[in-house]
Amino acid sequence: MFRRKPSTPAVSWPGRCFRWLRGLVLGFVLLTVASVALLRWLPPPITSFMLIAQAEAIAARRTDFRLNYHWVDWDGISTSAKDAVIAAEDQGFFEHGGFDFQAIEQAWRHNQTGKRLRGGSTLSQQTAKNLFLYPGRSYLRKGLEAYFTVLIEACWPKERILEVYLNIAQFGDGIYGVAEAARIYFGKTAAHLDEKEAALLAAVLPNPIVLKAGKPSAYVGRRQQWIVRQMRQLGDLGV
To answer: Signal peptide: which range, if any (predicted)?
Structure first.
């Protein structure tokens, strides 16, 4: 006599959902780790912020929009440009592990006063956001930003983080990276930016659409002067 094979018990819906979710999370982790690891050596062909800007321009039917982005290697960026963004955005860059908790606390206290919101993001966090994510202040976005920041700090040396940041940061409407900013605003290469020019570019980083390097306001001028003073006080940063 033939014995009937025991039937495989049906998987419940909660079990299926758990397996699907587990596979999704595992796939996300593998994909993101592989992407960050590859970008340790390869220049990013484009970033999420660039894609969003292009999509918004298409939706608004902007015929004047052009994406200006050109990668330049570490040695093709002036020391002044490297020093300027550190002085302006993250003076503890070489000391922290991706998060400046003192700056985050100060920003949180400032924001409780109801004044203009201030961020406490490091260059590592800004690189993670600009490269992989989207604008916003939701807990999900901040959680993803923290995740990618940890990955970047684990996989890349500080010099690589700074190199990528300078190449993908927005310096104006459709202007991404220090190479295109140097060409458009000063008619020179990123390697030849001087102290004041680099400080002017760094001065617009908080909001490069409102703050314009091409037509600097009095506020941008004051911020530029402050950044120059900070650069001189910090001295040789080893970059």
So the answer is: none
The fold adopted by the segment(s) 44-61+74-89+102-234 is Penicillin binding protein transpeptidase fold (1.10.3810)
Q: Global pTM?
A: 0.88
Find out whether 216 and 200 touch, Cβ atoms under 8 Å.
Answer: yes
Which strands sit side by side in the sheet containing 175-176, from one edge to the other? 68-69, 175-176, 170-172
In the chain, where the domains are located: 44-61+74-89+102-234
Structure tokens at 233: 């006080």
Please give the pLDDT value at position 36.
Answer: 97
85 close to 170: Cβ distance less than 8 angstroms: no
User: Is residue 170 over pLDDT 90?
Assistant: yes
CA-to-CA distance for 170 and 54, rounded, in angstroms?
Answer: 13
